Amino acid sequence: MSSPDGPLLVSACLAGFRCRYDGSAKPNRDVAGLAAEGLALPLCAELMGGLPIPRSPAEIVGGDGEDVLDGHAHVITRDGEDVTDAFVRGANAAAAVAAQMGCPAAVLQERSPACGVRTIYDGTHTGKLKQGCGVLAAALRRRGIAVVATEAVRERRA
Ligand code: SF4
Fold it and tell me: Which InterPro entries match (predicted)?
């Protein structure tokens, strides 16, 4: 059961952790500030699924994160490896932790095949985007945890 008093779940790369596929971070000042204040819980679903750093970048083919959870779409790396199982495992693990910690909402990195909220890459590895969410965003929504992109953080701190 989630309670409104838990920390915000945040994409670890937004909090400054170097967990992206290429070993970089995607630091966001507001998210890092929340984490420093103990108001945010940084997690990386890709690492929780057992994927290494660095790793080949992955995109969802045949749908979005909802479709992946339903078994109708796959997560495929640029090298052609099917990493669907790792993405599902990591998303479910991170969502379970978020629920256990009472996270009321998650602030996630847009466009990621795990963390994307409204937009993800289209599965062709050509830089094109499509509407849809990542696998973690879908898993969180299914547990009743709201997901937002980084723009919403300022409102929380105001
Ligand atoms: S899975 Fe989420 S937290 Fe991890 S690197 Fe990708 S966007 Fe960042």
Answer: 2-thiour_desulf
